[in-house]
Design goal:
The chain is an alpha/beta fold and 304 residues long. It contains twelve helices and eight strands. Strands 1-8-7-6-5-4-3-2 form an eight-stranded parallel sheet. Strand 4 (104-107), helix 4 and strand 5 form a beta-alpha-beta unit. Helix 9 (216-227) runs antiparallel to helix 10 (231-245) and helix 11 (253-263) packs across helix 12.
Length: 304
């Protein structure tokens, strides 16, 4: 039976751990999953950009889904990312995820082809109508060049299982724009690590995070303190966290965050080619950011 997806709280966009032999490291994947659940995340997203989705095979994605469902055991929903070039492939991936027990989907616009507004809406409509699963659209024109605008959402609002948006435009006023246009019709999930506190203050329903893969407790605390009005405590934690969070808004975010997860004992540095682990001055720079953060890692105890 599917777990209800509320699109609230912290949803990590999970890393995909590999072995030195370039196979899935499912045991390490489970270690990270358990750390996320123990920290209080409210959902899990597998096979996203941070999960190196473009290099994963369909069978590997199903292996990750199977292990995630086993570990979660109904505690939190498991969301599968859909990032395909052809509409028919996206439909097939969505139906395959549903048949194998996924609780929901994160759906990206068409990959590679720069679809116009009409084509993008039809792509989303076709995939949504092929499945009963709840869907969160990923609005990230910075990286994927397609902006899902308010007029496009007005068309998509007629499709009931399109329930949420991962808001990664990096324009925080878009949160207010969406609320003004739709009220609570769409759940809004902040999607940029360096805007977590601002997004929470603006009233997003949750956060899809990256550095949460290495620092789950800190990410959950930051969002929840902001929600609870503990702004002073949240701001101080945010100041400490910011150099790490900036590792997420970088072309090598996968390597960066995997290196951070090594430091906290819940990840490995192995990536899948053509990605390569960081080396030389680049690695030293990122490791320095991580080391400084670890040396000053704050207590999460907050006065009542």
């Amino acid at each position: 039976m599917n777990v209800a997806v509320t699109w609230q709280g912290i949803y990590p966009a999970l890393l995909t751990p590999f072995t030195a032999e370039d196979t899935l490291d499912l045991d390490l994947f489970e270690t990270n999953l358990r750390a996320q659940i123990d920290a209080g995340v409210r959902g899990l997203i597998i096979g996203g950009s941070l999960g190196e989705t473009s290099t994963l095979t369909r069978p590997e994605k199903l292996q990750l889904l199977e292990r995630a469902l086993q570990v979660c055991d109904g505690q939190v929903p498991v969301i599968v990312n859909i990032a395909e070039q052809a509409t028919r492939d996206a439909i097939a991936a969505a139906q395959e995820a549903e048949a194998n027990g996924a609780d929901g989907l994160m759906l990206l616009p068409p990959m590679r082809y720069f679809a116009d507004s009409r084509e993008t809406v039809e792509f989303f409509r076709s995939v949504a109508e092929s499945t009963k699963l709840p869907i969160m659209l990923y609005n990230n024109p910075v990286d994927y060049k397609i902006h899902i605008t308010v007029p496009m959402f007005q068309e998509l609002a007629q499709i009931p299982n399109i329930e949420a948006v991962k808001e990664s435009t990096r324009d925080l006023t878009n949160v207010i724009r969406m609320r003004n246009a739709f009220g609570d019709r769409f759940k809004i999930m902040g999607g940029v690590d360096t805007q977590i506190l601002e997004s929470a203050v603006l009233g997003v329903d949750g956060i899809v995070g990256g550095l949460v893969d290495a620092f789950p407790a800190e990410t959950v605390a930051l969002y929840e303190w902001a929600q609870q009005g503990k702004i002073k405590e949240a701001f101080e934690l945010y100041q400490w966290f910011m150099p790490l969070l900036e590792l997420d808004i970088h072309p090598k975010l996968v390597q960066n965050i995997k290196l951070a997860a090594v430091a906290t004992g819940i990840g490995s540095e192995y990536v899948r080619a053509p990605r390569l682990p960081l080396v030389g001055e680049e690695r030293a720079h990122v490791q320095g950011i991580i080391d400084r953060a670890m040396a000053n890692r704050p207590s999460l105890a907050v006065p009542a």
